[in-house]
UniProtKB/TrEMBL annotation, chain A:
Residues recorded as bearing N6-(pyridoxal phosphate)lysine in the entry: K108
Any single Pfam family the record assigns to this protein: PALP
Protein name: Tryptophan synthase beta chain
Domain Tryptophan synthase beta chain-like PALP: 72-397
Length: 414, 298
């Protein structure tokens, strides 16, 4: 298979493939999702919904996006046999979907290219984004540079210091980075500030949400743009192994890399879909970011989903060594997949994730992002459970260059 | 904590509830003001700032100094529709431990003065409390209703049923970007009044009231007889008079909150803060009584 064909078809297949019956026209995934936003944003959300529907039906749009994914983002990304890791874990054959090899170093580029093309299509000239680890911010700054759009990225003050390298990258790419000092100074507060910006600038500005979250149509739209991961992985596993995998494992913060790789497998009921939430210091300590394992249904950032919240419905501050997973909610489609039992969600704490990060580096020569390391830690358990006849795909959602400083401190390397 | 029944001692019996089928207390206030040829003044303050007791004193001062309706804000961890002033007061209230039960106590303190009290809240605290339980306890506290800015009509079914059962008004918002179809949809569910956001943006004082406000008010009036109150950016008596010239109500929030924040920063005692607040409210109350005739009413 050739790159261009696979990637272009990967997106175009979103229309042809048997798609799950969600969301409904109002953005509901079962009882989750919806649109809980001020009236002022409804017109923009309707405009985006219409523009997206028109774009999906336009062969010119799908061809342009497919072309950028193939010739700019580097798709399809490789499927790597992790032979030494497989031998070490002593269970299922472990295959890695290498989103770390995509341009800008993570899967985030898939979504931003789609949304920035939509921005241009809507006649808007400015893009705003939130970022936690900085990966989505870097990807957005990149796509804006490529397409000639103004770019402002909101980032919690705590994250600007723990991900300083990505702040510099965004500025090099011409984006304005705005540190957010409100609230817990992390991802959720960056989203709050981006929403405040958007309501005042919506005529000229698109809010490029970085995960499968927020008000409808964002969870659907981001999922569809990330679906290319699963479409490629499914075809690659079939070609390599001659059958479907037994399990697909991904980390989940908001959940875009997980939704992207899960979605094309949803109708393949023999394939287990497993998400790894960030357990921080451990679920029992209360200092974690596991919205499903440790939260309850509620409404935040325009959607109904599982949230970390107190008895009065105030959002609780999440904790994770991984800035990209440090979010108190989760995309509404994951909440629905959890509730219907189609996907299962486990918890990986900081220690287990960092141990997995080092193990993958030493055995496979791949320095993965701390976010992705959560998926690896979960996958080791799954691989042992399923045994040597099984095949497990891990979504290696991003590379770990941005995390070298954190890892060096964690392992006392300097 | 879910019921106020054991906490009723604080402020005595609240004033009577809206009678199902009759005119709500909010509707009566707007009808009286219209008969007097003036606009209604709606004042907002968050509960729990500078403290629960201080917040109660402040909302009472609002009611006594001339606010026709008082909005009691429920401080929330993620106030995406608020500018820096209300964020600062809400954050401080949360840090100092304000709870939803405290908000209901603050409502009760306004209600006993006879001035209708509304809760202004983001949706999640109501959902977490329990939709029916919140409506019941708000009614028990003497509240007249609630404004829920991030609850769209599409998602409001259970809330509309709960408020109707409890005899409460459910107030919804419109914005300059609202299409005529959406104005009609919001007007169909908004009881008491319709909250018209004067501009595209978050709460906070502005140099001038958006030109979009008068236009939006006219567009709302084309689809409903429900009164229209204009908020966002209104802070001075002159702006109040200007808005009173075309709308049924004038909503002021950040300007009042700012007075409390500044008093605290200056180390003023609570009495001084209250005097400042009363002065601002009196000026605004005068403003809504001299509507600028430049734009024809109704």
């Amino acid at each position: 298979m050739t790159s261009a064909v696979t990637s272009a078809a990967g997106f175009a297949n979103a229309d042809a493939a048997p798609v799950s019956p969600v969301p409904d026209s109002a953005g509901h995934f079962g009882r989750f999702g919806g649109r809980f936003v001020p009236e002022a944003l409804f017109a923009a959300l309707d405009q985006l919904t219409e523009a997206y529907a028109a774009a999906r039906a336009d062969p010119g749009f799908t061809a342009e996006l497919g072309g950028l994914l193939a010739t700019y983002a580097g798709r399809p990304t490789a499927l790597t046999d992790a032979a030494r890791l497989t031998a070490h874990v002593g269970g299922a054959r472990i295959l890695l979907k290498r989103e770390d090899l995509a341009h800008t170093g993570s899967h985030k580029i898939n979504n931003v290219l789609g949304q920035c093309l939509l921005t241009r299509r809507m006649g808007k000239t400015r893009v705003i984004a939130e970022t936690g680890a900085g990966q989505h911010g870097v990807a957005t700054a990149t796509a804006c540079a490529l397409l000639g759009l103004d770019c402002v990225v909101y980032m919690g003050e705590e994250d600007t210091s723990r991900q300083a390298l990505n702040v510099a990258r965004m500025r090099l790419l011409g984006a304005e980075v705005v540190p957010v000092a409100a609230g817990s100074r992390t991802l959720k507060d960056a989203i709050n500030e981006a929403m405040r910006d958007w309501v005042a600038t919506v005529d000229t500005t698109h809010y490029c949400i970085g995960s499968v979250m927020g008000p409808h149509p964002f969870p659907m739209l981001v999922r569809d743009f990330q679906r290319v991961i699963g479409v490629e992985a499914r075809a690659q596993v079939l070609e390599r192994v001659g059958r479907l995998p037994d399990a697909v494992v991904a980390c989940v913060g908001g959940g875009s890399n997980a939704m992207g790789i899960f979605h094309p497998f949803i109708d393949d009921t023999s394939v287990r879909l497993i998400g790894a939430e960030a357990g921080g210091d451990g679920l029992a300590t209360g200092r974690h970011a596991a919205a499903i394992a440790g939260g309850a249904p509620g409404v935040l950032h325009g959607m109904r989903t599982f949230l970390l919240q107190d008895a009065d419905g105030q959002t609780q501050v999440s904790h994770s060594i991984s800035a990209g997973l440090d979010y108190p909610g989760i995309g509404p489609e994951h909440a629905w997949l959890h509730e219907t039992g189609r996907a299962t969600y486990g918890v990986v704490d900081d220690q287990a994730a960092m141990d997995a990060l080092r193990l993958v580096a030493r055995l496979e020569g791949i320095l993965v992002a701390i976010e992705s390391a959560h998926a690896f830690a979960a996958a080791f358990d799954v691989a042992r459970d399923l045994g040597p006849d099984a095949v497990v795909v891990v979504n290696c959602s991003g590379r770990g260059d941005k995390d070298v400083d954190t890892a060096a401190k964690w392992f006392d390397l300097l | 904590m879910r019921s106020l029944s054991d906490e009723r001692s604080l402020a005595g019996e609240p004033s009577e509830r809206n009678e199902p089928g009759g005119q709500s207390r909010l509707s009566q206030v707007f009808a009286r003001a219209r008969a007097d040829g003036r606009a209604v003044l709606v004042g907002y303050l968050p509960a729990g700032f500078p403290s629960v007791a201080g917040g109660i004193a402040a909302v009472r001062a609002l009611a006594e100094a001339g606010a026709d309706v008082v909005e009691v804000g429920l401080p929330y961890s993620d106030p995406t529709m608020d500018g820096p002033v209300i964020q600062a007061a809400s954050d401080a209230a949360l840090r100092r431990g304000v709870t939803t039960a405290d908000v209901l106590r603050t409502v009760e303190a306004v209600a006993v003065t006879g001035v209708p009290a509304l809760v202004m809240t983001y949706w999640n605290p109501i959902e977490r409390y329990g939709v029916d339980a919140f409506a019941r306890d708000l009614a028990a506290a003497g509240g007249a209703g609630a404004i829920t800015p991030d609850l769209p009509p599409e998602e409001a079914g259970p809330w509309l049923a709960a408020t109707a059962d409890a005899g409460l008004d459910s107030v919804f918002l419109v914005a300059p970007s609202s299409t005529d179809a959406r104005l009609a949809r919001v007007a169909a569910v908004s009881k008491g009044f319709i909250y018209a956001a004067s501009l595209m943006g978050v709460t906070g004082t502005r140099e001038r009231v958006g030109a979009q406000a008068a236009d939006l008010t006219r567009r709302v009036r084309a689809v409903t007889d429900t009164p229209v109150a204009v908020g966002l950016g209104v802070s001075t008596p002159e702006q109040a008079a200007e808005v009173a010239g075309f709308a049924d109500g004038v909503i002021v929030g950040s300007a009042l909150v700012k007075a409390l924040l500044e008093a605290e920063r200056a180390g003023a005692d609570p009495g001084e803060a209250e005097v400042a607040l009363r002065g601002i409210v009196a000026g605004l109350a005068a403003g809504v009584r001299r509507p600028e005739p430049s734009v024809p009413r109704g």
